Amino acid sequence: MAITTQNPTPPTAAKHAGANVTRPGDKIFSGLSRGSGILLLVVMASIAIFLTIRAINAISKDHGNFLTTFEWNANANPPVFGIAVLAYGTIVSSIIAMAIAVPIAVGIALFISHYAPRRLASPLSYIVDLLAAVPSIIYGLWGALFLVPHLTGLNMWLDEYLGWTVVFEKEDPQGAARSIFTVGILLAIMILPIITNVSREVFRQVPRMHEEAALALGATRWETIRMSVLPFARSGIISASMLGLGRALGETMAVATVLSAAPILSVHVLDPVGGTFSQNIVAKFGEANEFGRDALIASGLVLFVITLLVNGAARAIIAKRKEYSGANA
Amino acid sequence: MSHAVADKRSAPAVPQRALAQRRLPKWAPAGMAAGAIALAVGIGIGAGLDSKLQWGLIAVLLFVLGTYTIATAVEGRRQAKDRVATSVVWASFILAALPLYSLIQTTVSKGVKILDGAFLSHSMNGVLTIGEGGGVYHAIIGTLEQVGIATAIAAPIGMLTAVYLVEYGKGRLALAVTFFVDVMTGIPSIVAGLFILSTWNLLLGFGPSGFAGAMALAILMMPVVVRSTEEMLKLVPNELREASLALGVPKWRTIVKVVIPTAIGGITTGVMLAVARIAGESAPIALLVFGNNLINNDPFNGPQASLPFYIFQQYQNGNDASYDRAWAAALVLIAFVMILNLMARGIARWKAPKTGR
């Protein structure tokens, strides 16, 4: 607690310092810095505006239904394209990634903040940071050339024993694991660090008194965590997960290398079909004509809006709980 | 909690164990782990399972079940749950360390195969996609130029924005900037690429160039720089500012000469981490820079190569010689990013702001 109260607040002393003198240097400098802030807002706004203009141009000439058409033939005449498969693939792969990553990330964060020996804690969090620093294309390369062949066994096992759930049914059990499911696993690995880092910060801010009170009542370590740490950190964990979700939704190269895309909407997550927004943009960009590019921009706009909503919600949750201010990764 | 109270109440009935519950000995987890592994290896060989991963899974399951049963018998259910939770937390950590280890081990072992001086000093000029040879010189040049330009754009704007937020920012503009910087951190890199594509290339009619890619990278870099700089400026003690202002130093000189120098270590670290992040971005490059097999030293004209996009292209060629090049380039890129990271952290430790705490 002592630390938060000592934290220097943004200075207000200047109010008196320059009360009757206005120096040109001050004006220029404050103008420059305010201008930079405004520039950032302008960039954000123009991203939205320019993408929307291009997208409207493309969608108005779409001979399919932009929301429900499966295939992507924007270069054809008349152009027929829709985001159904892409939206489905993006959302399903992100859900798989979240289902795997959130529990593990919370586990790691707990491990670093509560279980690991003190001396190990900081090297461990450094390892997590390294995981975050690996470029996504290298995850993609590793995923395609290492993970895919190694997942064939798991795929066969899932198909054999969980095939009755329909979700894990696979048409060709021996086939390469270039599926939405593999993408989900790879995305899970990629979003682990951000969820871990934010949750760890929140766990650190749990009032020491709460934990000590639980321990003093004879609670075991797990009971302490369940009764005093997790309830306090719940909103922090939720917003951390949503930040991770934002990453997973927009990831491009790792998906583009792993997935063998086909415009088929399939509930069988192990089948090598499907696509995601960003993967589709990279894959179709090379052959796209001028109108095709507009169509791709339209799909990019949808992705932009989705990530904007997810990230905005996550940040709003963090901002509401001001005590988590240190948790903004 | 009610359990704990109930236990204490019933305690006097058993005077021997009034204060100490029966506990498993300290070596119990280690012993249990050894037992579980031995049993799992036995089962694995007996049932003829060839995957070592399956052996590991069986061992983990045996360990958790065994711990739970024995701990329930000796220490009671609450302690048993605690022990299971402990092993789950440990397992999740090991589970996360495995892919990192595998990723780095694979990249290094496959990358060193063709990584040598010639690889670093040659381009792909005249090299067949299925043939051996070639290198990444052109890609390194491209990445350095693009990242350099992006940093030159994003670092000053980002730092000034942070100064605005910490030193001047009041009211709704500052709130809006803070919020949108946070939101901007989450913009997918491909969207930044599409934005530059729709303005610079489609609206203004410029062709692909390193500069176009650099602008997209700058958009990705700005919010990261703002965030880290802001955190560092907030750490500068208010007393320093007040002392300087009390001496009659103008506010802007106070910021330039007192506040920023105090936090410069952290600011540098933040910028370097941001550079490390954008150096690995390939999605905007695919849309804006196109890649190139030849050396193009001019970032303002014509397609350029870039290290991450080079990896993607070599992967797409889909033959062994190209895969070798992709791994070697991946090793170069990972080394570059890791060195930047280590240096950044070194600087952070070396020049940590002296807050007197």
Automatic annotation (TrEMBL), chain A:
What are the record keywords, sorted?
A: Cell membrane, Membrane, Phosphate transport, Transmembrane, Transmembrane helix, Transport
Keyword set includes Transport: yes
Which InterPro entries does this chain map to? MetI-like (IPR000515), MetI-like_sf (IPR035906), Phosphate_PstC (IPR011864), Phosphate_Transport_Permease (IPR051124)
- Membrane spanning residue stretches: 37-60, 80-112, 124-148, 180-199, 248-270, 295-314
Entry's NCBIfam families?
phosphate_pstC
Q: What does this protein do?
A: Part of the binding-protein-dependent transport system for phosphate; probably responsible for the translocation of the substrate across the membrane.
Listed name of the protein: Phosphate transport system permease protein
* Species annotation: Actinacidiphila glaucinigra
Q: Which taxonomic lineage does the organism of this UniProt entry have?
A: Bacteria, Bacillati, Actinomycetota, Actinomycetes, Kitasatosporales
From TrEMBL, chain B:
Q: Which GO terms describe its cellular component?
A: plasma membrane
The protein's matches in SUPFAM superfamilies, at most eight in alphabetical order, are given as: MetI-like
Out of the domains of life, which is the source?
A: Bacteria
One GO term under biological process is: phosphate ion transmembrane transport
**Domain ABC transmembrane type-1 residue range list:** 140-344
For this UniProt record, the keywords arranged alphabetically read as follows:
Cell membrane, Membrane, Phosphate transport, Transmembrane, Transmembrane helix, Transport
Q: Where in the cell is it found?
A: Cell membrane
**Recorded GO MF terms:** phosphate transmembrane transporter activity
Give the transmembrane region(s).
27-49, 55-74, 86-104, 147-166, 173-197, 203-226, 258-279, 326-344
InterPro entries linked = MetI-like, MetI-like_sf, Phosphate_PstA, Phosphate_transprt_permease
Membrane topology annotation: Multi-pass membrane protein
Transport found in the keyword field: yes
Q: Tell me, in a sentence or two, what this protein's role is.
A: Part of the binding-protein-dependent transport system for phosphate; probably responsible for the translocation of the substrate across the membrane.
> Which PANTHER family does the UniProt record give?
PHOSPHATE TRANSPORT SYSTEM PERMEASE PROTEIN PSTA
Q: Which family does the similarity line name?
A: Belongs to the binding-protein-dependent transport system permease family. CysTW subfamily.
Q: What is this protein called?
A: Phosphate transport system permease protein PstA
Q: Which organism is it from?
A: Actinacidiphila glaucinigra
The taxonomic lineage of its organism, from the top, reads: Bacteria, Bacillati, Actinomycetota, Actinomycetes, Kitasatosporales
